[in-house]
């Protein structure tokens, strides 16, 4: 798994969580952690973009490079999503809710493994 893609997806997920934290803070007076089920959706958006964009890219690849290439691309996107999910929630459904800061900390740890690569921020 390309760690640059993983780190970018983690930072993007943290931003989406931060947006949700701001929304819940405004609505309830305090931010709430994002539960596993909601995080799965946010991770998907961070990794593959909105469903419409994902479908458009798949169709573009299928028409220009063939269905096998589009399928392989889709599988790589899903692998990235699973990997990011596993990093954030190592205990699956039994994992605690996470805030944006905690997700950024995970990304920072991975980034620290290769300090010469600062392209993910």
Q: What attributes does this structure have?
A:
mainly alpha; 121 residues; 74% helix
Query: Runs with pLDDT <50, length 5+?
Result: none
Distance between the terminal alpha carbons, to the nearest Å? 18 Å
Report the average pLDDT across residues. Answer: 88
How would a textbook summarize the main sheet?
A: none
Number of helices: 5
**Number of extended strands:** 0
**What value does the Rg take, in angstroms?**
16 Å
Strand content: under 5%
Task: Give, in order, the helices and strands.
Answer: HHHHH
Structural class: mainly alpha
Gross morphology is globular
Helix content: over 70%
Please explain how this structure is put together:
The protein has five helices and no strands. It has helices at residues 3-28, 36-48, 51-65, 67-88, 100-112. It starts with a helix and ends in a 9-residue tail after the last helix.
In short:
By secondary structure, the chain is mainly α. The protein contains 5 helices and no strands.
Write the layout of secondary structure elements.
Blueprint: H1 3-28, H2 36-48, H3 51-65, H4 67-88, H5 100-112
Helix pairs in contact: 1-2, 1-4, 1-5, 2-4, 3-4
């Amino acid at each position: 798994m390309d760690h640059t893609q993983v780190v970018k997806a983690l930072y993007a997920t943290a931003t989406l969580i931060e947006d949700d934290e701001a929304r819940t803070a405004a609505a309830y007076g305090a931010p709430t952690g994002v539960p596993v089920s909601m995080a799965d959706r946010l991770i998907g958006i961070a990794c593959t973009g909105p469903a419409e964009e994902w479908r458009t890219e798949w169709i573009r690849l299928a028409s220009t490079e063939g269905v096998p290439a589009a399928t392989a691309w889709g599988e790589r996107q899903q692998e990235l999503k699973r990997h990011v999910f596993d990093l954030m929630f190592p205990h699956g459904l039994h994992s605690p809710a996470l805030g944006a800061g905690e997700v950024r900390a995970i990304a920072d740890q991975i980034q620290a493994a290769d300090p010469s690569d600062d392209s993910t921020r």
